Amino acid sequence: MARYIVRRLLWTIPVLFFIAVVTFSLVHAVPGGPFDREKALPAEIIANLEKHYGLDQPLWKQFTDYLGVTRKPGGEYGGLLQGQLGPSFSSRSRTVNDMVAAHLPVSAQLGICALIIAVGLGVPLGVLAALKQNTMWDYIGMGMAIFGVSVPSVVLGPLLIWVFALALQWVPVAGWGKPSQVVLPAIALGLGQSAIIARLTRASMLQVIREDYIRTARAKGLTERAVMIKHAMKNAFIPVATVLGPMFAAVTTGTFLVEQIFAIPGMGKYFITSIGNRDYPVVMGTILLYAVFLVFANLTVDITYAFLDPRIRYT
Amino acid sequence: MTAQQHAQERALLTERRIANLWLDAWRRLLRNRAAVLGGVIIILLILAAGFAPLITPSHYSDGDSAENYTIPTWLVPLLPGNVEAYATISNKFALGADFLGRDLYTRIVYGARVSLPVGFVGAFTALIIGLIYGSVAGYYGGKVDNVMMRLVDIMYAFPTMLLIILLMAFFKSSFGGAQDPGTVSYTFNQVNHFVDGLLGLEGGGMLFIFMGIGITAWMGVARLARGQILSLKEKEFVEASHMIGARDLRIITRHILPNILGPLVVTVTLYIPRYITTEVFLSFIGLGVDPPTPSWGAMISDGSRAMRSYPHLVLFPAIALAITMFAFNFLGDGLRDALDPRMKGTQ
């Protein structure tokens, strides 16, 4: 197991490197620079700014500076290897590290709330639909799942605001800080995910309860409850765990749409504006952050497999 | 029972035996009411998009700023608050008018000319690229397979949404305004205009959206195709064709592809809603379709700024989008159940 984890962690290094190279090439391939303004800055000022940030260096040098394997023009190392994500060109007083520290927790809180809704609603709904297959419960559950899959957050968000904030006035329209302000965005973000989980849980449950070991468990006289919880659900959860990995990375690192609709100060906004502003370090930082989250979420998922199903062994 | 009835019955039975997999699947599909409803809605949407100029009162970019934010009279009783105090209320527009006084109904109908092609072309490109890539990896196996599949793994570690945003920013600013004949960018721009024209839009930049989705959407299909081929290529009928000297290309196209196309088509159909939401998302953040070409995502984005006072600007495009998504999900689920009843209810 330990060897497997080490091997997986080592494999993330080339993956992250590749992602860094592609992202770096893409952001620099987009025409325009970080200091283009509607009212053009004097050429000397741009030259000075570029010199200050090392943008006058050849691209490969900028990249190695960013990684932290070569000295920056200032003479010091300061890149990924040193844990520094670089300066932000558009908000001069802050580094990308500051930005992440200030806004990632917001996105993460919202994301975790959404994930709790997704799992808390999706798993019971899926299990219920599978256990009572082809009954009212099944149809209601799967009807709700179809609704969740078909109504994207860009539609659900405004609808929720309209009904619960404007018409009924139960919760604030938008903003961040009070617990009541988390409810609507978390639902807007989590409902679609819960639908995916519900459908997956149902399908996987249906498959598992036809297995021989379930019949064996029943035959040895266990209560139906014990059979379902200890034997069926544990195994049925494996495919669900698979989608939870990427889902976790996606919802915790900032979802622009929901953050925009509900005016939440999360990471999503900075990524979108940084592309428009050609704020290279912010773009790089956000993408790498997401990739790291994804890699670790997937690794966690793979390790959980071994606990859920002892037949899965890693060597 | 008369002899005639016997003969009829026998004929029926024979017919049923001849009925092949596809006919069977078609019958199962027709029995699924939700799928039929989805299919009918999609056909209606395609017709509406195709005949848009005939069923809309004006052009999608025509508007009078004197009539901006008009709320249709029939909607007023449904809205909270005192709408009469601040808004123009009129019967002139079926669904009201947007912030530039453009007819909302017209723009929603033309918006289908964006969303539907994105769904279909996205599915088609994902199928073609994924199929070719997955077939080659699965069929040749060994080192080729290993390298090709590692690349897919890396692509999977990319945040798809962020990658597509980057790609769109790149396409739009590199190719979008290219004016110099002879350059690659210019060619892309010309093709882009041609594609927009083909879809009946004046501008919009649809080619770039297709390219962005195409580049980021094929990996799932590639994995599936590879897995299917890995299991098929060991089968006796493939071995037999090898023995009689058939070439690789012929074996892949004549013997293997027909066997794996069903599940792949189903998977891709189930992805269509995802491509549609991708475009909506891109247009929402201003990197999708260029204005004034209408897109439901851009309309929702514009509308959400004035939602408190003019909720109709968000509601109608949102409802159009939701109906389309429902239709594709119903049809996709139905297709999957029909083609492979064992997969019923899976994602």
Short structural description:
The complex is a heterodimer of chains A (315) and B (347). Chain A has 315 residues and is an all-alpha fold. Helix content of chain A is 71%, strand content 0%.
**Element order, helices and strands of chain B?**
HHHHEEHHHHHHHHHH
Which structural class matches the secondary elements of chain A? mainly alpha
CATH topology of the largest domain in chain A: MetI-like fold
User: Can you tell me the overall shape of chain A?
Assistant: flat
How many separate domains make up the residues of chain A?
Answer: 2
Oligomerization state: heterodimer
Radius of gyration of chain A: 24 Å
Mean pLDDT of chain B: 81
Overall residue-averaged pLDDT value of chain A: 83
Tally of separate helices of chain B: 14
Query: What is the level 1 CATH name of the largest domain in chain A?
Result: Mainly Alpha
Strand content of chain B: under 5%
Cα-atom Rg of chain B, whole angstroms?
Answer: 25 Å
**Unreliable sequence segments of chain A:** none
The helix-strand sequence of chain A is: HHHHHHHHHHHH
Span from first to last CA of chain A? 6 Å
Query: What about the largest sheet of chain A?
Result: none
- Per CATH, the superfamily of the largest domain in chain A is MetI-like
Number of strands of chain A: 0
Give the CA-CA distance, first to last residue of chain B.
Answer: 48 Å
Structural class of the helix and strand makeup of chain B? mainly alpha
